[in-house]
Amino acid sequence: MIKLSVAGGIGEHGRNCFLIRQSPFTYILDCGLSQETFDPYPHLDSTEINQADFLIISHCHSDHAGAFQWLRQQGFQKPLLCTRATYELLHLDYDNTIFIDETFPRMKTSLCFPGLEIKWGRSGHCIGSIWLTLATSQSKLLYSGDYYPDSQLYYCDSIDQTDADLAIIDCAYATQTFTAADWLYQFNKLLERSNHNLLMPVPKNGRGLELAALILNQKPDLKLILDESLFKQYTQLEQNKLWLKPYNLKSSDSIRSVHLIGDPQIQLDKSRQLAEWYLKNGTIILSGTCYKDSYAEQISRQQHVHTLIYPIHPNLTMVKELIKHNHFKKVVLFHSQEIIEI
C-alpha cells in the first residue's frame, strides 16, 4: 500500500512536492517553491521532513527543487537522489548525495536501498530531468517528473508497458492542445507582420535552448543572440550528450535578430532595462507561464508583447495516451492549476 500526502503541485502550477509512505519507506518526491511570496514552501512540517528516508529531485527547476535549502533548515540530513547535471545546475553542496545517472543504469531495474528497487529514464524536459519507478516487494510507484516525449531537443525515454499501483503524472497543460508546429506557425506569422527585432525571455535551463535550436533550424536567416547563461549551456553541448539530441546553433549575420535571455519572468534589473528598450523599439515574445505580479505579467498585455506558449509539458490528451500504454491502478495528475481527475 502507498500513502500519498500532497505538499504542493495539485491545484497550482508550482511547489511540486509529495510525501510518500511506501512501507517500509517514507520519502519525498521533489521540493518545489510556489511563486506565492506569502506561502512559498511545501506544506510539510519538520516531523514529516525528518521522517523521510531520502529525497528525490527530478530536475533543476525551482518549482521542483527550489525548497531544498529550506528542507535542510528544517533538519533534513538524509540522502538526496538526483542526476549529476541537476546537482550542478542547482549549484548544490551536499555530501550525502547519490547521483542516479552514475549509480543506476538507465532503463534498468536496480537495487536502490535494501528492499527498494529503482528504474529511471530521461524525461525530455531539460538537461538532467528524469522520471522513475520505485518498487518494494508489495507496491510500485511511478513518478513522471516533468515529462515531455515530443521534445525537439531533449531525449526522452518513453514510459511504456509499466505497471504501477500509483502513478503521479505531469499534466501541466491540461486541456491546452498546442504543439511545437503550432508555435512555429504563430512565430512565422509574427515575423511576417513585423520587421522588429525580437526579445524572448526564457528559462535558462530547458525551453530556452530548445527554442534557440528550433528557430535556427527553421529560420537560419535570423541572427541569434544568447545571454551568458544560455551561451554557457551551448558551449557545454559535448558534456551533455546524454540529455541533448544533436543540434546546430550556427547563426547568420542577419540584421534581424532574436535575443534570448535566461530570465522568463524578467526579474533582473538588466532584463527589465532590455525589455523596456524592446517595448519601444522591438517585439517581445513570452513563451511560458507568467507568474502573478511578475514583470512579465505586467507587460504581457502591452502592444508589442505577444504570448506564444511553447509546449514542454503534456496535456490531457497526451496523458490519456500514456495511461493507455501502461498499467496504472491509480493515477494522480499534478502541475496544473486545474484539479483534474481521470
From TrEMBL:
The organism's place on the tree of life at top rank: Bacteria
Protein species of origin: Dielma fastidiosa
Keywords: Exonuclease, Hydrolase, Nuclease
A Pfam family: Lactamase_B
Name the record gives this protein: Cft2 family RNA processing exonuclease
Classification via Gene3D superfamilies: 3.40.50.10890, Ribonuclease Z/Hydroxyacylglutathione hydrolase-like (3.60.15.10)
Domain Metallo-beta-lactamase: residue ranges: 14-183
InterPro entries registered for this protein in UniProt: MBL, Metallo-B-lactamas, RibonucZ/Hydroxyglut_hydro
